[in-house]
Amino acid sequence: MKFLFVLLLVPFLIIPVYAESQTMTTEKNTLDVKLTYDKIEPNIQTKIKIDFINPQTQKIQEHIDYTITISKDSENIFGPIPLTHTSLGSVKIPIEFNLGQGIYTMNFQIEGILFQPIPPETVSFDLIVGDIQLEIPQNNEENGGCLIATATYGSEMASEVQQLRELRDNSLLQTKSGTSFMEIFNDVYYSFSPIIADMEREHPVFKEIVKLAITPMISSLSILNYVDMDSEESVLGYGISLIILNLGMYVGIPIFGVLKLHKIRKFE
Fold first, then answer.
1. Which of 18, 153, 219, 242 has the most neighbouring CB atoms within 10 Å?
2. Which are the contacts of 127, defined by CB distance < 8 A and separation ≥ 6?
3. Are 163 and 225 in contact (CB under 8 A)?
């Protein structure tokens, strides 16, 4: 039964993992933001290159208004800076990561393009500082996002990512069967999710394919926001129901379409 859940909940994850060059999209897909940097060591100043990229042309977008905050464990080490303008669309900023080794979060808020204000859009990056070994966190930790969903929707603050996190923390991890599932799921998910997330960041077309593939699944999970999942029976019951629903969408409908097409051609 637990393995059936894996078929349904592929988007879950705990810690985003990135390389030394990262590209993420703002939450409404208006801009791509690219970071380039050398290996980051604690208490040593590191220059981080930031490129704001037009996702349609894949060229540097000039005249961007933005703010930046960098933090670790909710403690800011940089910013929030006042609203800043770059005419070139590319900047380099020196940062000293002075809270020791670990994972730091770099948050952007974009508020203007080409001297025109836009509704603020955010995007977040995780920066690995020092020689740390990333481990799969224990299920009782509250923080975390989703590798594939974060890469797909461009930010840990995207509503789809928040929905997955809330379902994990507020429902699955509150029951014994849900906690057992997460232990099995982590082993399976972490074997492939970093590769998929990296491919999404490097290939925008692949990212759109993944978005098209996982959006129906995430939409179906929203049903769980309107039901009570406070017992072992409810977790299993709703979980099995959603597995059947998703199998129908991802397997049943395509098979039905192929059979229908074959039948039509047979009588032509």
1. 153
2. 18, 35, 37, 40, 70, 97, 103, 104, 105, 106
3. yes
Which residue carries 């906690």 as its tokens? 179
Q: What is the pLDDT of residue 226?
A: 67
61 in Cβ contact with 113 (< 8 Å): yes
Place of tokens 């017992």: 231
Q: How far is Cα 220 from Cα 132, in angstroms, rounded to an integer?
A: 37
Residues composing the chain = 268
Each residue of 182-224: pLDDT tens digit? 777 767 776 777 788 888 877 888 888 888 888 888 777 777 7
Q: Which domains does the chain have, with CATH numbers?
A: 1-17+134-268 (no CATH), 19-133 (2.60.40.1930)
The answer to whether the beta carbons of residues 22 and 125 sit under 8 Å apart is yes
Q: How distant, in Å, are the alpha carbons of 40, 124, 130, 188, 199 from that of 19?
A: 11, 14, 13, 21, 11
Residues 115, 111: Cα–Cα separation, whole Å: 10
Q: How far apart are the C-alpha atoms of 35 and 124, rounded to whole Å?
A: 11
Encode pLDDT of 53-88 as tens digits.
Answer: 998 898 999 999 999 999 998 899 999 999 999 999
**CA atoms of 11 and 134, how far apart (whole Å):** 19
